[in-house]
Amino acid sequence: MAANDRAAAPGKSGGSSGADGLMRASLSAVAPGTALRDGLERILRGNTGGLIVLGWDKTVESMCTGGFILDVEFTATRLRELCKLDGGIVIDKDITKILRAGVQLVPDPTIPTEETGTRHRTADRVSKQVSFPVVSVSQSMRLIALYVDGQRRVLEDSAAILSRANQALATLERYKLRLDEVAGTLSALEIEDLVTVRDVTAVAQRLEMVRRIATEIAEYVVELGTDGRLLALQLDELIAGVEPERELVVRDYVPEPTAKRSRTVDEALFELDALTHAELLELPTVARALGYTGSPETLDSAVSPRGFRLLAKVPRLPGAIIDRLVEHFGGLQKLLAASVDDLQAVDGVGEARARSVREGLSRLAESSILERYV
């Protein structure tokens, strides 16, 4: 089995945590281009069914009766041939060995399930009892279902997934264009010190929308396996810098703590992530997630950036120096007004770096104003 296939193999001790992480790892293990997916498709073409457990421990061993102990190397053709037997198959979590074949799996019958067929009911209960992924290949319905810790996912043909992924990618492109527009406007307003809470929330809203669409497309990339390579490249190009920009906007504008309210950067990011899709469309709700009151008066109130976002655009400026500059000057306007000598007063900023910061901020100010008014 290829090295990248083994790295994506699911298991209870995998790198991802939680049901979503296990589902993602499991989808990667059965994606097109993997040996396991090849074997599953051979089973479908051979018009036979199958029940395959992707993991082995004492609990799995205790629910296996009958069958054969094999411990042989996994191949797609062996999986296909062994599924001709009347029984389940157990593979190790790395999908390198077939451990058991023709076994009857007897999970706890008290585990609730909404499945009706014998094979699917068994697959659902086994996945819930042992927390290993279980694959069920239906002979009559001609579909492959993946069961992971109470979740069920039917594996679709790559063409159907690609169609939906391309639609999502087109949506992402439109949202990214709009994000670039509002982010450019925010930069110009920052230079002129004319930013309002409304301007900030509009950028935070668009950043969150782009991020969520990108997350959806990333799920398609996992499902597509080798068929999703071009999609992955397009996605990486479109969302480059979005996640850092999201954090920088919050660091620039999260309100200073007061006696009535206090919101850290991490808390604000968490609140934005927790917004529903409907809530994300409402600017007052986004403002509240950032730590503002969200009233119409607050949306139109003036705010000033600390300067993290613009300083991050200065080439070759380390994050530690950015933090010191912001802490020393306290806001973007003072940074813009600072001379080379003023900048050198900051620990770690020598003459060469001070000139680089001064020239970088000046160029950013000029380009931002030109983009807005020309």
From TrEMBL:
<dbReference type="GO" id="GO:0005524">
    <property type="term" value="F:ATP binding"/>
</dbReference>
<keyword id="KW-0808">Transferase</keyword>
<feature type="binding site">
    <location>
        <position position="87"/>
    </location>
    <ligand>
        <name>ATP</name>
    </ligand>
</feature>
<keyword id="KW-0547">Nucleotide-binding</keyword>
<comment type="subunit">
    <text>Homooctamer. Interacts with RadA.</text>
</comment>
<keyword id="KW-0460">Magnesium</keyword>
<dbReference type="InterPro" id="IPR036888">
    <property type="entry name" value="DNA_integrity_DisA_N_sf"/>
</dbReference>
<comment type="function">
    <text>Participates in a DNA-damage check-point that is active prior to asymmetric division when DNA is damaged. DisA forms globular foci that rapidly scan along the chromosomes during sporulation, searching for lesions. When a lesion is present, DisA pauses at the lesion site. This triggers a cellular response that culminates in a temporary block in sporulation initiation.</text>
</comment>
<dbReference type="GO" id="GO:0016787">
    <property type="term" value="F:hydrolase activity"/>
</dbReference>
<keyword id="KW-0067">ATP-binding</keyword>
<dbReference type="InterPro" id="IPR000445">
    <property type="entry name" value="HhH_motif"/>
</dbReference>
<dbReference type="InterPro" id="IPR018906">
    <property type="entry name" value="DNA_integrity_scan_DisA_link"/>
</dbReference>
<keyword id="KW-0238">DNA-binding</keyword>
<dbReference type="Pfam" id="PF10635">
    <property type="entry name" value="DisA-linker"/>
</dbReference>
<dbReference type="InterPro" id="IPR003390">
    <property type="entry name" value="DNA_integrity_scan_DisA_N"/>
</dbReference>
<dbReference type="GO" id="GO:0003677">
    <property type="term" value="F:DNA binding"/>
</dbReference>
<dbReference type="GO" id="GO:0140097">
    <property type="term" value="F:catalytic activity, acting on DNA"/>
</dbReference>
<dbReference type="InterPro" id="IPR023763">
    <property type="entry name" value="DNA_integrity_scanning_protein"/>
</dbReference>
<keyword id="KW-0227">DNA damage</keyword>
<dbReference type="GO" id="GO:0006281">
    <property type="term" value="P:DNA repair"/>
</dbReference>
<comment type="function">
    <text>Has also diadenylate cyclase activity, catalyzing the condensation of 2 ATP molecules into cyclic di-AMP (c-di-AMP). c-di-AMP acts as a signaling molecule that couples DNA integrity with progression of sporulation. The rise in c-di-AMP level generated by DisA while scanning the chromosome, operates as a positive signal that advances sporulation; upon encountering a lesion, the DisA focus arrests at the damaged site and halts c-di-AMP synthesis.</text>
</comment>
<comment type="similarity">
    <text>Belongs to the DisA family.</text>
</comment>
<feature type="binding site">
    <location>
        <begin position="118"/>
        <end position="122"/>
    </location>
    <ligand>
        <name>ATP</name>
    </ligand>
</feature>
<keyword id="KW-0548">Nucleotidyltransferase</keyword>
<feature type="binding site">
    <location>
        <position position="105"/>
    </location>
    <ligand>
        <name>ATP</name>
    </ligand>
</feature>
<keyword id="KW-0234">DNA repair</keyword>
<dbReference type="Pfam" id="PF00633">
    <property type="entry name" value="HHH"/>
</dbReference>
<dbReference type="GO" id="GO:0106408">
    <property type="term" value="F:diadenylate cyclase activity"/>
</dbReference>
<protein>
    <recommendedName>
        <fullName>DNA integrity scanning protein DisA</fullName>
        <ecNumber>2.7.7.85</ecNumber>
    </recommendedName>
</protein>
<dbReference type="Pfam" id="PF02457">
    <property type="entry name" value="DAC"/>
</dbReference>
<dbReference type="InterPro" id="IPR038331">
    <property type="entry name" value="DisA_sf"/>
</dbReference>
<dbReference type="InterPro" id="IPR010994">
    <property type="entry name" value="RuvA_2-like"/>
</dbReference>
<feature type="domain" description="DAC">
    <location>
        <begin position="20"/>
        <end position="158"/>
    </location>
</feature>
<dbReference type="GO" id="GO:0004016">
    <property type="term" value="F:adenylate cyclase activity"/>
</dbReference>
<dbReference type="InterPro" id="IPR050338">
    <property type="entry name" value="DisA"/>
</dbReference>
